[in-house]
Amino acid sequence: MEKLLEEFKKICQKNGIKVTPQRIAIYQELLKADDHPSAVVVYERIKKRFPNISLDTVNRTLLLFAELGLARIIEGHGDPKRFDPNTKPHHHFRCLKCGKIFDFYHEPYDELHVPEEISSRFKILYKRVNLEGFCENCRN
Fold it and tell me: How far apart (Å, rounded) are the C-alpha atoms in residues 37 and 133?
């Protein structure tokens, strides 16, 4: 956690972003979350420590983190955006019943071939496979 916080501070300073206690708290909350939280969830978790913080501030901060490469946005299907602090190559499984998102690693997915018609038209920054189904708890 300490190394990640130091890297966070360096990235903020390099980009002219003030390192505030609120931004640190939002980033720490994102790092310790394993549920790919939405801005609302992060807001609910930190508002006790920062009662004057607004949901808008949390949302804009998380979007800024995504811009800086400190987090990734996981688009839902009609759900609010969720945020992932894990920027290393990995993939997701989403439970259709409970909505939980689980990280998983599978090297062959990292090496997926992008069709020429796509790679010639778009600049691919990263590849991620999203699987959907029912988690262990919900499939029964």
Answer: 19
